Amino acid sequence: MKSIVKKIIPKSVRNLRHLLVARKGAVKYHFPSEELFVIGVTGTSGKSSTIDFLRQSLESVGFRVGSLSTVDFYVAGKQTMNDQKMTMLGLAQIQKYLRKMVEAKCDIAIVETTSEGFLQYRHKYINYDTIVLTNLYPEHIDAHGSFENYKGAKLGIFEYVSKCRKKTNKKLENFFEGEKSIPKRAFVNGNCANAKEFLSFSFDEAGLFYRDDEIIYADKAYGNNGDFSLSAKEVEVKKEGLSFVVGEIPFFAPLFGEFNVMNILPVIGILRSLNVDWKKIQKAVEKLKGVPGRVEFIPEAKTQGFQVIVDYAFEPVAIEALYEVVKLQKPKRIIHVFGSTGGGRDVGRRATVGEFIGNNADIAIVTDEDPYDDNPMDIIQDVRIAVEKTGKKIDKDVFEVLDRKEAIHMALTMANKGDIVLITGKGSEQGMVVKGKIIPSDDRQIVRNMLLKNTRQVHK
Known about the structure:
Layout: H1 2-8, H2 11-14, H3 16-28, E1 37-42, H4 47-60, E2 65-68, E3 72-75, E4 78-81, H5 93-103, E5 108-112, H6 115-119, E6 130-133, H7 141-144, H8 147-163, E7 185-189, H9 195-198, E8 205-211, E9 230-238, E10 241-246, E11 249-253, H10 260-273, H11 278-286, E12 296-297, E13 307-311, H12 316-328, E14 334-338, H13 349-360, E15 363-367, H14 376-388, E16 398-401, H15 404-414, E17 420-424, E18 431-434, E19 437-440, H16 443-458
Parallel strand pairs: 1-5, 1-6, 2-5, 6-7, 7-8, 8-9, 13-17, 14-15, 14-17, 15-16
Antiparallel strand pairs: 2-3, 3-4, 9-10, 10-11, 12-13, 18-19
Helix pairs in contact: 4-10, 4-11, 12-13, 13-14, 15-16
């Protein structure tokens, strides 16, 4: 019946019910965003990492914070891993969490804001104060029909925030000296080819963040209010972390992945927009910890003599960035467990990802990811065929393993001293979607349990 309704009624019309739900939720929870300083983070990738780093940094300098992201739901120190397979919650749950933040006396709320969520009106009745664009490139085309539609949804988020009603926030009045109301601000990745379009809306203040050694697609001086526009230079990647310079101020972050520089820059910009001292920001960045399921090294593997990394990366750009981290470790071999998502999601990605991993990993183990209503073996075979095009042979250096746990077990069993096992596509996700049901699963915990069991057997 549901499939028939979907065919008859256009998606745009079906989404109107989400607008009614959003309105009902805002009324039920008494418009909680009016009592918080709300930061939205959108973009193709890096959203959850940026949110996590921002939350850590804001707490480090004294703010009380809540956040909602793909990774977790966080309210003033209380963390619940996101087990909903949904980044931007529906059924008024965002309003419910925002009310919890108010009751927990939070100053600031950070909301991961997606293009699909925008189309379903989940942003409605959230009064944002600041919006961040992490980046934008062709992805998620399956949900939008074209890149232009996808970009249009992101632009719609920016337009919405620029038009949100200004508000006062007594708890934050010291950070807006001389202002009668909180200004509406935008922070845009200046290395993004569409940066100018996102800066076209009527924000009170706007700032770019960018790397000096990459193409800048907007006027560097645009919206340069004080220290809001930031550039990173002298970027260095070492085994112990990242170092870079903003202006004349050196920064160090104990994080893996050069891409994290671009996740940290908007954090610095937002802290400066809140009048936080540069030295405090430096110390906050120095204390940053990795994000669950994002280039997460599983420490229990060290006793086995190899390394295991669990990462959320599922699309080509993110996987390529992950391999930059992996190659810094100089592994003897790379054993990669991965798959591709079903439900009609970017079918073309299967070949691109398969070929990249076929060319860069020593052993590829293709497994189930989130099949949704699709036949998982069809997906696995599509990916395997792409891997084979790079010269790998079935059951020699490329394997098909339907059960994800079995695939992980195979990889751990194959690993020798000096190897790295990569497990990608799920990160810290708490479940796999199979025919409309979420099957509880956590790659990180699966690995830990297997390694712990193996350690016990070794030491018997």
